[in-house]
Every structure is written in structure tokens, then in C-alpha cells.
Amino acid sequence: MYKLWARKINKNHMTGSIVVKNKEDISLSEKRDKCLKEICQRLDISVPVWLKKHDLEFSQFKYVTFYPQDFVDEVDFDKLEVELIEDGKKSAW
After folding, report:
1. In this structure, what are the phi and psi dihedrals at residue 16, rounded to the nearest 5 degrees?
2. Distance, CA of 31 to CA of 25 (rounded, Å)
3. Is 60 among the domain residues?
4. Which residue range(s) make up the domain with 80?
5. Which of 68, 80, 86, 89 has the fewest CB atoms within 10 Å of its CB?
6. Per-residue pLDDT averaged across 35-41, rounded?
7. Model pTM score
């Protein structure tokens, strides 16, 4: 199962949090995109622009931070943090 945890942060305080899951049999990037769209829909914010720097950050750390300049519309928070909780792969342990 693929799970993303998103947190809206404003002045170093979490103002919103949501976990979204995806069990579809699609690629990981498609799951990520669908989950991100669902997160934004449920938090009532626009979908941020996904840049190459976000792709690198997410692939290396399974974590990405979006700032107000990453959104087309104005937002009422300082950053949106998105973290991969589980990527559906079995652990070697």
C-alpha cells in the first residue's frame, strides 16, 4: 500500500494534517500524483507545481516540502510537507 502524509505548517505549527492511501495497480509516480491531488482536494488548496528539485528530494528522502511560491494560487500557510509513509515494498528485515 502507498501512503502519503501531508502537513500544513504555519509559523512552525502544524495547522492541518492528512494521510492518503492508494492501493491501485499503477506506477509509483502515478500513485504519488493521485495521492497529492487527493491531499490538495481534501485540504482545499491548489495542487503545487512539481519541479525537478521536488522529484530529486522525494526520490532521495521520500519527503518533499512545498512553499507558497510552488502554488499558483495564494495559500494560508508557510509550507506543505509531504512524506511517504509506506511505499508498498517489502522490507529486507
Report:
1. -170, 150
2. 9
3. yes
4. 2-87
5. 89
6. 96
7. 0.86
Calpha distance 87→4 (Å, rounded): 9
> Domain holding 47: CATH number?
3.10.20
Tell the residue number behind the cell numbers 497529492, with chain if given: 36
87: closest CA among 52, 63, 57? 63
- What is the spatial distance between Cα 11 and Cα 86, in angstroms, rounded to a whole number? 28
Would you say residue 29 lies in a domain? Answer: yes
Q: Which three cell numbers stand for residue 49?
A: 507545481
Residues 14-25: pLDDT tens digits? 999 999 999 999
Residue 93 lies in a domain: no
Q: What's the total number of domains in the chain?
A: 1
Residue 76 counted as domain residue: yes
Cell of 56: 530529486
State whether the Cα torsion 71-45-33-21 is positive or negative.
positive
